[in-house]
Design brief:
The complex is a heterodimer of chains A (335) and B (296). Chain A is of the alpha/beta class and 335 residues long. Chain A has 9 helices and 14 strands. Chain A has a 7-stranded mixed beta sheet with strand order 3-4-5-6-9-10-14, sandwiched between helices. Chain A has a 4-stranded antiparallel beta sheet with strand order 2-1-12-11, with helices on one face. In chain A, strands 8-7-13 form a 3-stranded antiparallel beta sheet, with helices on one face. Classes of the chains: A alpha/beta (335), B mainly beta (296).
């Protein structure tokens, strides 16, 4: 008898508590409504994007401009164009909208002249290139200079591979590290290279990250520190080639070299991209990203977002593809 | 806040005094009321539902497996248990249907959990086959989540730790003597057996969580910290807020050898505001637990 009374009470209590889940949590916010998705993205950027001031962006005005293009009958394709257009106003290749049918990007490299032609290097400078992991390399200037091409910070490499490359050029009088058109990738690949050019930790700049709703709310400065990494060291002169296609992790690398007296930047200003992009998802399932931090130099200036200037300015002359003027300028510096 | 912590600790601290109210045999103990000790091990289904506002307004739900080991000590007066559990599930976002292509919205999560529970009988509330116990529990869960659609925020780590007050009502369903049943041509004798049904409810009193900072990602990998865990967690903050509820309905049956098994349904829900953006996590489990009686 007791069992008959007890069981229904237990089951009711249990079902009741399980149903509480829906009552306890806020309602499901999944939505394909264009206005809901627009407002969500706008607010996320407003709360966390890190370069409103540097880029002089009136985010409220941008909202008005793009929201007026929506209606309740806006299609997914139209919504993508509106949201992608809004996020491109940030003029930042770290700011993207990712729908399953398209990916929005500002495309900074197309906004300036290219300064790199791999065929020129292959055909006229390095006829017998060695490929070791992520690195293409060989001797230049009758064996007096080593040339190393690292095309993307997305390409991982091992300590042994980098040791091999640096050991091969240990007896040269200088190195040329070509990072032109290196669009960035993993910041984890920055330190393993920069750390080969130092013997003790060196402060190279700072990071600050958004920590509040105001566009000027940032947390305390964290030091960007170059620490020696294990393996073969190279203490002689290193010429690092850069151009506007050198973006994100490559810009971080470029700013790091400013603190290293034996490393010189040659070429054009980097493409920028000093902020670390975070990621998130809209109520309709599309994903997005944008920068939430600033990269500062040792003086506290945040220009790296728009590019780190070279120490020696040089440009590629596209009227003569048999010669790489930026490489030649670096070689001249090593004479 | 300090007053709240103090009073909550006081409540938890006073709970052992309930022991003085204890009396009466418990089906999970010997008839003499001596303490029984078990090694427990379970396998179960695990169905989490979660939403992390720091990265997405969408609920993620999925299915997986949960495993656990621990011990249980019980007598007519009190119960103590400790459990370590590992649960994992593949999850998918509950996103609206697309007119073109569906967004890739799958991920997975692993939860490493620890539970310590103490219960004391409250004699004045015991009537007939019903036994009431009250006490407290300490729960600590570490979640590891991965969702590549979130790019630099692909990894999710959070710790949810709670001091809870507990109430349990159990009903003795034991068969005290042999019973014969006649099913037309089949005659069967049912032996005496110890078994009970119990409902446990834990409610978080002190709810702690360890969650990412305002912007979730943080560039500390380049700040000279060489230990990965240090830079991953360098922007994380402890908070004390939110709530947690945990319920268990268990059918427990003891074999003549002294070992036992149980089937249980577990529901757990936590709302974790953190300092900036909330996370919500609920889970449903159906568990099969084996209890091996031990001497110590």
């Amino acid at each position: 008898m007791a069992m008959k009374k007890f069981l229904p009470i237990l089951l009711t209590a249990l079902l009741g508590l399980s149903a509480c889940e829906k009552a306890l949590f806020k309602s499901d916010q999944a939505s394909s409504d264009p206005f809901v998705n627009f407002d969500y993205l706008w607010q996320e950027v407003d709360k966390k994007y890190s370069y409103f001031e540097l880029k002089n962006l009136d985010w409220q005005q941008i909202r008005t401009k793009y929201r007026s293009r929506l209606s309740s009958s806006t299609t997914e394709e139209e919504l993508f164009n509106v949201l992608g257009g809004m996020i491109n106003e940030l003029r930042d290749d770290h700011s993207n909208l990712n729908a399953p049918f398209n990916f929005s990007r500002y495309n900074l490299p197309l906004k300036s002249k290219p300064n790199f032609n791999w065929r020129t290097i292959e055909e006229h400078y390095l006829p017998n290139i060695w490929y070791t992991g992520a690195f293409a390399h060989d001797f230049l200037d009758s064996g007096r200079v080593g040339y190393i091409r690292y095309g993307s910070f997305l390409s991982n490499f091992s300590e042994a591979e980098l040791n091999f490359v640096l050991n091969r050029y240990a007896n040269t009088k200088g190195l040329i590290l070509d990072l032109r058109s290196n669009g960035g990738g993993s910041v984890f690949n920055v330190m393993p290279i920069l750390g080969r050019f130092v013997e003790a930790p060196v402060a190279a700049g700072y990071f600050i990250t958004r920590n509040g709703p105001k566009h000027t709310d940032f947390g305390p400065r964290e030091t960007y520190q170059i620490t020696p990494t294990p393996g073969t060291r190279y203490n002689k002169k290193v010429m690092v080639l850069m151009d506007r296609g050198s973006y994100s992790a490559t810009t971080l690398f470029a700013l790091g070299t400013k603190a290293l007296p034996n490393v010189v930047l040659v070429g054009d200003t980097t493409g920028g991209g000093g902020g670390l992009p975070n990621g998130g998802q809209l109520p309709n399932g599309w994903s997005y990203r944008f920068s939430v931090s600033q990269l500062l130099d040792l003086n506290g200036d945040n220009y790296a977002e728009e590019g780190v200037p070279p120490d020696i300015y040089a440009t590629f002359d596209w009227s003569d593809l048999s010669k790489d003027e930026i490489l030649e300028r670096a070689l001249l510096e090593l004479k | 806040m300090q007053k709240f912590i103090f009073s909550s600790l006081l409540v938890l601290g006073l709970l052992p005094n309930q022991e003085t109210l204890a009396a009466g045999p418990d089906p999970a103990t010997d008839s003499a009321g001596a303490r029984r000790r078990y090694f427990q091990s379970y396998v179960g289904s695990y169905q989490p539902v979660l939403r992390d506002y720091a990265t997405s307004p969408l609920f993620y739900g999925g299915s997986g497996l949960s495993l656990g080991i621990g011990w249980l000590k019980c007598s007519s007066n009190q119960e103590r248990s400790f459990l370590m559990q590992l649960s994992g599930a593949f999850t998918n976002a509950r996103a609206p249907k697309s007119d073109f292509l569906e967004a890739p919205v799958s991920g997975y999560m692993i939860q490493l959990g620890m539970r310590h529970q103490r219960l004391w009988a409250i004699n004045r509330l015991n009537t007939g086959p019903f036994k009431v116990k009250a006490g407290g529990a300490f729960y600590s869960d570490q979640n590891f989540r991965l969702n590549t659609a979130l790019q630099n925020n692909a990894g999710g780590l959070e710790n949810i730790t709670n001091l809870m007050v507990s109430g349990q009502i159990s009903m003795d369903l034991s068969r005290k003597s042999e019973r014969t049943i006649n099913l037309l041509v089949v005659k069967r004798t049912l032996r005496p057996v110890q078994r009970h049904l119990r409902l446990l409810v834990n409610v978080g009193v002190l709810n702690f969580n360890y969650r990412p900072g305002y912007s979730y990602t943080f560039e500390s990998e380049l700040t000279g910290k060489t230990v990965s865990l240090l830079w991953i967690l360098s922007n994380y903050k402890w908070s004390m807020n939110g709530y947690r509820l945990h319920t268990e309905l268990e059918y427990f049956r003891q074999a003549s050898s002294g070992n036992a098994y149980s089937w249980s349904y577990v529901w757990d829900a936590a709302h974790v505001p953190g300092r900036f953006e909330a996370m919500q996590l609920a889970s449903h489990q159906i568990k099969y637990t084996l209890y091996f009686r031990t001497r110590k």
